[in-house]
Amino acid sequence: MKTIVPNFFSKNIYLSIFLAFLFLSFTSCAKKVAFQSSSIVPAARGQVTIKKDDNNNYLIKVKIDNLAEVKRLESSKNTYVVWMETEESLIKNIGQIKSESNFISSKLKASFETVTAFKPSKIFITAEDNADVQYPGSAMILETRRF
Predict the structure, then answer these.
(1) How far is CA 131 from CA 9, 30, 66, 93, 134, in A?
(2) Is residue 37 a part of any domain in this protein?
(3) How many domains does the chain have?
(4) DSSP sequence for 21-43
(5) What is the pLDDT of residue 103?
(6) Is residue 24 part of a domain?
(7) Domain that holds residue 50
(8) How is residue 54 annotated by DSSP?
(9) What DSSP assignment string belongs to 57-79?
(10) How many of the other CB atoms lie within 10 Å of CB of 51?
(11) What does the pLDDT read at residue 75?
(12) Nearest in space to 87 (alpha carbons), one of 50, 54, 114
């Protein structure tokens, strides 16, 4: 029986390919940040995914489970608004979150997706009376840590 022993050159090639693949997999991944627990809606859990695209814009995706209907909050509001804090400490309203529920599942799910030219440093959600407000209200529902 003949055993095949790889030579030194082929070992280095395989190692180099493996390291290059490992490096590319870490650099191409999007950043995922979990929301911190909410005192207003304690069951709500979610995460934010941020990825820089080829045009140097930032794709922001928000996914939330167990988000209570906005009308059922203690201080009834009309909509959830997603906010972004930039590296320059500017606060921007980036949109309204839509919730979805169905008769098969009792969990309330919500999702949101947008593209922005500003680099976000924090994402948070507030309950508001209308979606086009310029400044966030005091009803902070969910927020991320700074990233």
Answers:
(1) 62, 28, 21, 9, 9
(2) yes
(3) 1
(4) HHHHHHHSSPEEEEPPP-SSSTT
(5) 45
(6) no
(7) 31-143
(8) T
(9) -EEEEEEEESPPPGGGSSS--SE
(10) 14
(11) 84
(12) 50
